[in-house]
Write a structure and sequence with these properties.
Blueprint (H helix, E strand, L loop, with lengths): L1 H58 L28 E6 L5 H10 L9 E5 L4 H6 L4 E3 L8 H16 L5 E6 L3 E2 L1 H8 L9 E3 L7 E5 L6 E5 L8 E4 H11 L3 H9 L3 H12 L5 E2 L23 E2 L2 E3 L2 E3 L15 H8 L9
Parallel strand pairs: 1-2, 1-4, 2-3, 6-10
Antiparallel strand pairs: 4-9, 5-11, 6-9, 7-8, 12-13
Length: 347
């Protein structure tokens, strides 16, 4: 009786185990089939994502930082924060003697592309141009002369005015500069304003060398500087580091110490005192270089232009357009070449 009962129990257990095994196998097969179906059904999505990634990768070179012949690829920041026009503080240095002579062409052309971002720093009150600039003319109360102290005085006010804003970039230009505003903004988009950037173009072939008389024995100091005649830009991070030696009028005293003008003083502070190098940008142009050699096909890629009169010959951009008697410095013709939609441009 006992043996027979054990056998029945054994057979029942065996059937139970076979049932569980069969059930487990069925569940495994069902899971496998479901997994295979999900994998196959997602295959199209995965492929689409891969194709999109490949397309984005192919487009990436169009958005990489532009690098000049004197700027290594390491000078531009990988994927910096996006830059928009309102991130830029544009200052234009002028003087009362040039208000009527130089400002009207600026106000008619590139100022129209950056009215809220551009400020004019001068040495007198001028209600007429205060109105024409939408209240963006600042009387620095500096001298109207062109000596180094007056120049440093204006640059000091420009710098302090920028510091008091929330802008990411400080870009200085002179009143004989044409600024390609959209190109400037795209260019700055290749750099991170939270890093130290001094962007511009030197006007000399070798670093400037001066004597530091404060050290005994006297020492020679070498440094590069970006010429103010072509324009230059500073990141906010760098400007903040400059404050102990440049803000609150200290820029003027630094310039007096080395007895050099504003753009040289800027280079001295950044390259010598702060040990931050100038990043050379060939797309900035001053009147110290021949404008006629800037080829027509690359005009759209340039950031700033200038002009000058050398005896009876004008150093200007070579561009067709308005009559030279009407458009002597060629800024009007240049503007219509770059932005033909303006209503004064010929159709």
């Amino acid at each position: 009786m006992s043996c027979s009962g054990d056998q029945v129990i054994f057979e029942m257990n065996a059937r139970h185990r076979r049932f569980l095994q069969t059930l487990s196998l069925a569940a495994l097969l069902a899971y496998t089939a479901l997994f295979a179906y999900q994998t196959l059904s997602r295959g199209g999505v995965v492929d689409e994502e891969n194709v999109l990634a490949e397309k984005l990768h192919q487009r990436a070179p169009l958005e990489e930082p532009s690098v000049t012949s004197e700027t290594s690829s390491a000078t531009a920041t990988l994927r910096p924060p996006s830059t928009v026009l309102d991130d830029v503080f544009i200052s234009v240095k002028t003087t009362k003697n040039y208000h009527r002579q130089r400002l009207p062409i600026i106000l008619k052309t590139w100022f129209q592309l950056a009215k809220a971002q551009t400020w004019f720093f001068t040495d007198t009150d001028d209600p007429e141009f205060q109105l024409k600039t939408n209240g963006h003319m600042i009387n620095t109360n500096c001298s109207s002369s062109h000596n180094r102290k007056a120049l440093c005085c204006k640059m000091s006010v420009e710098f302090d005015t920028f510091i008091d804003t929330d802008k990411k970039w400080f870009c200085h230009f002179d009143d004989d500069n044409y600024v390609n505003v959209p190109r400037l903004v795209r260019f700055l988009g290749d750099y991170n304003p939270r890093e130290d950037w001094y962007l511009g173009k030197p006007s000399i072939q070798a670093p400037l060398e001066i004597i530091n008389k404060e050290k005994k024995p006297t020492q020679k100091v070498k440094f590069w500087f970006a010429t103010g005649g072509a324009g230059f830009c500073l990141s906010r991070a760098l400007a903040l580091k400059m404050m102990p030696v440049a803000s609150g009028g200290k820029f003027i005293s630094t310039g007096e110490k080395i007895r050099l003008p504003d753009d040289v003083t800027m280079g001295y502070i950044i390259e010598h005192l702060l040990k931050k190098p100038l990043t050379v940008v060939d797309q900035f142009h001053s009147h110290l270089e021949p404008m006629k050699f800037i080829r027509r096909e690359i005009l759209e890629d340039q950031i700033s232009f200038s002009y000058a009169r050398n005896k009876d010959e004008w150093n200007v951009v070579k561009i067709e357009g308005f009559d030279t008697k009407y458009d002597t410095n060629r800024f009007l013709s240049l503007h219509c070449f770059l932005f033909p939609h303006f209503n004064f441009c010929p159709r």
